[in-house]
């Protein structure tokens, strides 16, 4: 995977964070739920990234 894929991954992460912030305000999620969603997203993105390296 080249640097373009990494840039795309970072862009998707920012887009996800922006969307999650809007959803969190709409559903009034607590900090623990917010942290759980972010950690899950990071793990999934790392798994996808490592799969594309093979």
TrEMBL record:
Keywords: Membrane, Transmembrane, Transmembrane helix. It comes from the Bacteria. The chain crosses the membrane at residues 32-50. This is Putative membrane protein. It comes from Sphaerisporangium krabiense.
């Amino acid at each position: 995977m080249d640097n373009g894929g990494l840039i795309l991954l970072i862009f998707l992460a920012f887009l996800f964070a922006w969307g999650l912030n809007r959803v969190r305000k709409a559903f009034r999620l607590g900090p623990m739920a917010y942290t759980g969603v972010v950690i899950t997203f990071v793990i999934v993105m790392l798994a996808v990234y490592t799969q594309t390296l093979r």
